[in-house]
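Render this sequence as a predicted structure.
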Amino acid sequence: MFHAFLVKNADYDGYIELPVIKTSSFIPEKVVTFSKAMSKAWTDFDCWVVFYEHDRKFERLWHNSKQYLNKLKKFRGVISPDFSLYRNMPLVMQMWNTYRGRAIAVWLQNNGIEVIPNVRVGDERTYSFCFDGVEENKTVAVGTHGCIKRKEDKLFFKVGLAQLVKRLLPKTIIVYGAAPDSIFKPYRDMGIDIIAFESEFSKSRRQVTA
């Protein structure tokens, strides 16, 4: 039921026992979303696979993990799955989605794939678990697409990011989506390397208006 093979021989961290990801020392130069990477048309494997898209586009990786392993091995690495943490979701579902992302990441890692942990932060209720299983003083990844457009969402993201930096003290933060100074300048000033990748949505908008 919980796909025990994903966490075979895993170490666990925190009260709810999230699997521990060993952070890759490599830094992505290019990224591609999982749905695009798994398409037959995609042939550029010199990039990292990310999951910053609707859950329905990568839910299949949870249900049929082994089916995608060989294809994922062709890429430079994977940023761990970004299952949604909506603030109106029951907290137990947010815990479950956090667990699923960590479990898949550990399994990919145990199969020889480089992994960087994605950290998805919800409201203050998630602070008790959402940083567990992630190494300190390493690289983490966050997604801003769809999270900073509305004023309320932007505030929650800023507060959550501050907690992330306080808890994990990352050397590098990979950002999928916009990385405006209004949010990220304090961390750039601290010496944290902020590496941003344009979202697929933004790319498509730019191509349409070009």
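Summary. The chain has one domain: 4-209. The helical segments are 34-37, 59-63, 65-72, 91-110, 151-168, 181-189, 200-209.
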